[in-house]
Design goal:
By secondary structure, the chain is of the alpha/beta class. The protein is built from 9 helices and 11 strands. Strand 1, helix 1 and strand 2 form a beta-alpha-beta unit.
Length: 309
């Protein structure tokens, strides 16, 4: 089980181009890679095993590619999955009502009866989304939701932090991970003036996690926290925290993408294998022009190998 699978992504996007550029740049051995989707070998320096998807419908092509990758992962034939970008709208138009590739992975690799390795959490296998660039890591407590639908609970926070703690200890070799928790409301709620979630939901979760031995801050104002994180990143200094916990999608991703967009890798943890992906989208506007930057895809492939070894 030495190979990683790479899905070539959206038929109309930059997936094919950045996969070709990344593989030619990395020059990996033929036995290391399985390509699923389009056959790219005529444009590659090295010929890789390929499973072609004979499907012209864009959404179906994307879904079937990922489904086959999950099948190989479930069987133990591959050790990680790297996904090129896919359009959520394309999936929806083809009848697949998933809010992203992470949710498809959860469907096929999230075994409700399979307990994770953690003895403290007793958690079931469940997908979590964490964005990684060097030692900057941001986990999303909620993912692809309308802002009005973002809801946190004590149990949700505890569950996700315990899963992420397992990942940081076992895959990143961090002995006692330190977490920083972003408050949901501006100024951490100002003691209830701007919202009660910090007092009623977040602090009870923090106290219980601390009782379990987890090193976690109280809810911190997200703007101040990311200003501190950004200063360290730009100065190439070691981050104070091993993982930032963002309450919702844009709270975490706007600062991360502003700081390190090209290098940031969207990583799915908590399932049978690691999945990585560049944080860029399908980029329809530049598809086919040969100008797409493949840095994110290179970083995704490198991280997949690193985390699955």
């Amino acid at each position: 089980m030495s190979k990683i699978a790479i899905t070539t992504g959206d038929l109309l996007g930059i997936g094919e181009e950045i996969t070709i550029k990344a593989l030619n740049s990395l020059n990996l051995p033929s036995e290391d890679i399985l390509i699923i989707g389009k056959n790219l070998n005529s444009k590659l320096n090295t010929e890789y095993e390929t499973i072609e998807i004979d499907q012209k419908d864009n959404g179906r092509f994307c879904f079937e590619s990922l489904k086959i990758a999950c099948k190989f992962a479930d069987e133990g034939s591959i050790k990680a999955i790297v996904t090129a970008p896919v359009s959520k709208e394309a999936l929806y138009k083809s009848g697949y009502e998933y809010s992203g590739q992470t949710e498809i992975l959860q469907k096929f690799l999230g075994d409700k009866n399979q307990e994770a390795e953690s003895k403290t959490s007793g958690a079931k296998a469940k997908a979590e989304m964490i964005f990684i660039s060097d030692d900057l890591r941001v986990l999303l407590l909620t993912r692809h939701l309308a802002l009005k639908d973002v809801k946190l609970s004590k149990d949700l926070i505890i569950d996700k932090v315990l899963r992420t703690n397992d990942f940081l200890v076992k895959k990143c070799n961090i002995e006692n991970p330190k977490f920083a928790l972003c408050a949901l409301n501006p100024h951490a709620g100002e003691n209830g003036i701007l919202g009660n979630e910090e007092k009623d939901i977040m602090m009870p979760a923090v106290l219980e996690l601390r009782n379990l031995g987890i090193n976690i801050t109280e809810p911190l104002s997200a703007d101040g926290l990311f200003a501190h994180v950004g200063e360290k990143y730009l100065n190439k200094e070691k981050q104070e925290y091993d993982c930032i916990l963002a309450s919702y999608h844009d709270q975490g991703l706007c600062p991360v993408k502003a700081l390190c967009f090209k290098k940031t890798v969207n990583t799915t943890i908590g399932l049978k294998v690691i999945r990585t992906s560049p944080s860029s989208g399908t980029a329809y506007d530049i598809a086919g022009k040969g100008i797409a930057d493949a840095t994110g895809m290179e970083e995704a492939i490198k991280l997949a190998f690193k985390l699955s070894d």
